[in-house]
Design brief:
Largest sheet: 4 strands, antiparallel
Helix content: 25-40%
Strand content: 5-15%
Oligomer: single chain
Shape: globular
Bound molecules: zinc ion
Number of helices: 6
Distance between the termini: 46 Å
Order of helices and strands: EHHEEEHHHH
Mean pLDDT: 85
Length: 175
């Protein structure tokens, strides 16, 4: 059973945003992206192996941990100190964090939630159950962020932000 992300989602009810902080930067701590200068987040080699294109996969350097760049406007996805290694075109999936205005780019890779789907539920039912649904799946051991999500860790922080944005744009339209 995968307990890799959000080990106790029920015990941290206020921690939707801080969920991903359970995985503090290790090797990436002081390491910044060579292209944009933002602090990286650590991802395991397994994540790169799962999500890079076959051509890019053959170029993964022999080391266990890499850094992920979260900056939306930066094309670099994975780097190591001083070296940009893989860009968006090297991945076989869209990097949702780098496509913030693309409503069909995934925010939750394990269960296929996109801003579009989140918004559709809010429009249809006036509420969002996506966080509860994901938490239930995490609890059931069905969360595989390590091999589905380019950031290699829990998506709940990103999903919470997408829900807030969907609610904000929906209520704006209402007025
Ligand atoms: Zn960057």
């Amino acid at each position: 059973m995968s307990q890799a992300c959000c080990p106790n989602p029920e015990s941290t009810p206020t921690a939707v945003e801080s969920c991903c902080e359970l995985h503090p930067p290790i090797a990436c701590g002081p390491t910044t992206c060579p292209a944009c200068g933002a602090l990286g987040r650590p991802v395991k080699r397994l994540t790169l192996g799962a999500l890079l294109t076959p051509a890019a996969r053959a170029r993964i350097p022999r080391q266990e941990e890499f850094c992920f760049c979260r900056t939306a406007t930066c094309d670099v996805v994975y780097f190591r100190p001083g070296e940009a290694l893989f860009r968006q075109a090297d991945l076989s999936v869209d990097v949702g964090l780098k496509e913030p205005h693309q409503p069909s780019a995934p925010v939750c890779y394990c269960f296929g939630w996109t801003p579009q789907k989140i918004r559709a539920e809010i429009e249809a039912t006036d509420k969002s159950t996506v966080i509860e649904q994901i938490k239930a799946q995490v609890k059931a051991g069905n969360c595989y962020c390590e091999v589905t999500n380019p950031q290699g860790s829990c998506c709940l922080g990103n999903v919470a932000k997408a829900v807030q944005e969907a609610i904000a744009s929906f209520s704006k339209k209402d007025q």
